Q: What sequence folds into this?
């Protein structure tokens, strides 16, 4: 019954709109949910943008390392422009478009903007940008904080989003065509994306608690507290005074190991860490693996030495580019092309140069070597494996064998002297 009530309170908070009156009601619901959770179960931080940043991105080192690794790696990938001419992509270079792309706004370069946009996307599940058009051409665009943004919906199925609201001091209504909204998929929310941290919320909270526990233990002379049993009876004032003096003289990592000096007669019973407590500390590695799993990377890339999905670091980096970064940049390609470059030239497209990535270049070099030795494939079949179009020359559809390989019956070799199970036994 209790979990049902907790879920009902959480749902009520999520479903309330962002008006001042409903926000007050939402606060009451949230207070009730937090009160029940505090008594009957663990407390997890909220899922609005500020909570995700303060309690997740800024507080949890594994989450910070994961998001930063993906954002930095993705934003550093080179890009170029092509023009579609009857299905053929021709390199394209327009100084005006390049100027806009190289500096989306006076404060940052394309790489800086991309890193921030991807970071917002990975934290909030939403990345908002405001673009400025002059003569129907986008001249610049800049980031809008996700927690300042709200979607104004309508009942018109042909235009479900009426406008956007940007609240910073005052409410600013922004037309739909001036806002670029890049979001993840949320199965139960048509207007906002789902933060990946929501899926890792319990792991992040557990990791934070483990770090707090470890820090408190270290500050308490690096061990768990003990029991101080005095021979004579003490008043509450004396107990408080002893506790205060103990904290002042012996608490803290810098005072660890100092002897306790007192004239009172007492016994000290030290409480030790149980095996269950020690195993709980090992849960830090588990949270590291779970956070990395949510974002699709190998936990070895964020410092987990106990478990790794791949044989070595190079393979882990390669899979991160293939499984995480390439899909993210492919989405970003579409947004930039549809909302920005299309205002200049609909036939021009931005492409990220994945082949310039060192890990992918090494992987492709290994693929070239494997295909070069696959003599049983035709040249066109090898081209297809590498993503190239087939050539019409008939000779490209013929299987070629190495010139040094000849049939054994033409080699004038006595087959009886070749290694066999019989003569090898001899």
A:
């Amino acid at each position: 019954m209790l979990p049902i009530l907790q879920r009902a309170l959480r749902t009520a908070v999520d479903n309330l709109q962002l008006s001042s009156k409903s926000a007050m009601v939402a606060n009451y619901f949230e207070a009730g949910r937090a009160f029940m959770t505090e008594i009957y179960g663990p407390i997890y931080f909220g899922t609005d943008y500020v909570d995700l940043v303060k309690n997740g991105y800024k507080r949890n080192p594994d989450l910070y390392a994961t998001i930063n690794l993906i954002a930095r790696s993705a934003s550093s990938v080179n890009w170029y422009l092509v023009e579609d001419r009857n299905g053929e992509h021709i390199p394209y270079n327009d100084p005006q478009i390049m100027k806009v792309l190289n500096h989306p706004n006076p404060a940052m370069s394309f790489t800086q903007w991309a890193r921030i946009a991807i970071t917002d996307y990975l934290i909030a599940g939403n990345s908002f940008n405001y673009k400025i058009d002059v003569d129907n051409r986008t001249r610049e665009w800049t980031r809008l904080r996700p927690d300042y943004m709200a979607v104004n919906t309508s009942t018109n199925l042909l235009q479900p989003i009426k406008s956007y609201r940007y609240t910073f001091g005052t409410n600013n209504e922004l037309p739909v065509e001036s806002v670029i909204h890049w979001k993840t998929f949320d199965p139960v929310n048509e207007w906002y994306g789902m933060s990946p941290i929501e899926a890792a919320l319990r792991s992040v909270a557990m990791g934070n608690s483990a770090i707090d526990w470890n820090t408190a233990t270290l500050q308490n002379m690096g061990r768990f507290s003990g029991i101080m049993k005095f021979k004579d009876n003490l008043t509450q004032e004396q107990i408080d005074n002893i506790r205060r003096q103990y904290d002042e003289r012996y608490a803290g990592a810098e005072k660890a190991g100092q002897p306790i000096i007192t004239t009172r007669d007492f016994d000290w019973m030290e409480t030790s860490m149980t095996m269950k407590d020690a195993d709980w500390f090992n849960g830090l590695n588990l949270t590291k693996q779970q956070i990395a799993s949510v974002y699709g990377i190998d936990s070895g890339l964020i410092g987990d030495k106990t478990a790794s999905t791949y044989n070595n670091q190079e393979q882990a980096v390669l899979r991160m580019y293939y499984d995480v970064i390439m899909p993210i940049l492919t989405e970003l390609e579409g947004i930039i092309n549809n909302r920005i470059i299309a205002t200049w030239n609909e036939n021009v497209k931005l492409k990220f140069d994945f082949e310039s990535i060192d890990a992918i270049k090494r992987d492709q070099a290994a693929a070239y070597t494997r295909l070069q030795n696959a003599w049983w494939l035709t040249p066109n079949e090898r081209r297809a494996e590498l993503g190239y179009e087939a050539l019409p020359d008939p000779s490209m559809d013929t299987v070629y064998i190495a010139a040094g390989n000849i049939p054994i019956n033409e080699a004038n070799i006595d087959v009886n002297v070749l290694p066999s199970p019989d003569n090898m036994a001899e």
